Amino acid sequence: MYKNLKTKIGSLELRNPTLLAAGILGQTKANLKRVWKSGAGGVITKSVGPEPKKGYSGPNVVETPCGLLNAMGLPNPGIENMKKEIKNFKNQEKTIIGSIFGKNVEEFKKQALRMEETKVGGIELNLSCPHAGELSLIGHDPNLTEQITNVITNETSIPVWVKLPGNTHLANLRKVAKSAEKAGADALTITNTVPGMAIDIDTETPILGHDTGGLSGPAIKPIGVRLVYEIFEKVGIPIIGAGGITKGKDLIEYVLAGASAVQIGTGIIYRDIDIFEKICEETLTRLNGQKIENLIGKAH
């Protein structure tokens, strides 16, 4: 449909460079199919853990003038229930990436092996949710990132993506990215949400039930673009950009910085589920006959 938008993330071929980000509309087979039919090049499941989890008490989401703050607490149906949702999804036609989280190497390994049983196109390791307590620190540790990634790349036979934080010092992020690459990661996702907070000045209390949360949307796009740009120069594996993509020009900006594809989550709230098709159309207009792959990293 969009031949000039085809792109590759390692061995995975995408019909276009827009992906559903983990965390929104990714919990059921029905919603994943809806997103696919709405034009996404691929879909990423909601991050799942070993067991079902309710997450934090509300309020869980608050709108700010520049994006959304959320503190969900990684609510999820658990790996076994997710397997039932996405098994036999016809992966020859549709690209599904299973997002997983865990609290240690062994837990990540078990999750990855279970996810692989569903025949997904790949696995994304969520090492960086900023409001998940001690789990949020994994992606800040180069050694732990390398250990987890190494075990999973050795134990599974499908592509492994590593989702990195946006709230660590650049020098450390470079180390984490290099560690993931050294351990065999097929791609990096940059960036997760960044920590933020909102306070109700009438009640004089935090609005979110968890007090602090992760900021997504337009406010973090310059952060994401900068980090993609910086890490692109340090690694030799593909990068998937994430953070604040709502228009075709946002996608192109990330690609010029070095991304081979982008993930979209909060943008769905602003432009509805057909945002993927809208962004593809806007991108094609701006490309004016060029192939998107020819723009990867061109800003360097």
Summarize, please.
The chain is built from 9 helices and 16 strands. With 300 residues, it is of the alpha/beta class. It has a single domain (3-295), classed as TIM Barrel (Alpha-Beta Barrel), CATH 3.20.20.
Describe, in plain words, how this protein is organized in 3D:
The chain has 300 residues and is an alpha/beta fold. The protein has a single domain (3-295), classed as Aldolase class I (TIM Barrel, Alpha-Beta Barrel). Helices cover 32% and strands 20% of the residues. It is built from nine helices and 16 strands. The strands form four sheets. An eight-stranded parallel barrel has the order 3-4-7-8-9-10-15-16, surrounded by seven helices. A hairpin with a 2-residue loop joins β1 (7-9) and β2 (12-14). α3 (105-116) packs parallel to α4 (142-155) and α6 packs parallel to α7 (248-257). The longest helix is centred in the middle third of the chain and has 14 residues, at 142-155. The relative contact order is 0.16. The model has no long low-confidence stretch (mean pLDDT 93).
The CATH class is identified as Alpha Beta
What's the total count of β strands? 16
Radius of gyration over all CA atoms, rounded: 18 Å
The backbone outline, from C-alpha atoms, is globular
Q: Low-confidence parts, pLDDT < 50 over ≥5 residues?
A: none
Roughly what is the average pLDDT, rounded to an integer?
A: 93
Strand content: 15-25%
What is the CATH T-level topology? TIM Barrel
Largest sheet data: 8 strands, parallel, barrel
CATH architecture classification name: Alpha-Beta Barrel
Query: What is the string of SSEs from the N terminus onward?
Result: EEEHEEEHEHEHEHEEEEEHEHEHH
Order of strands, widest sheet? 3-4-7-8-9-10-15-16
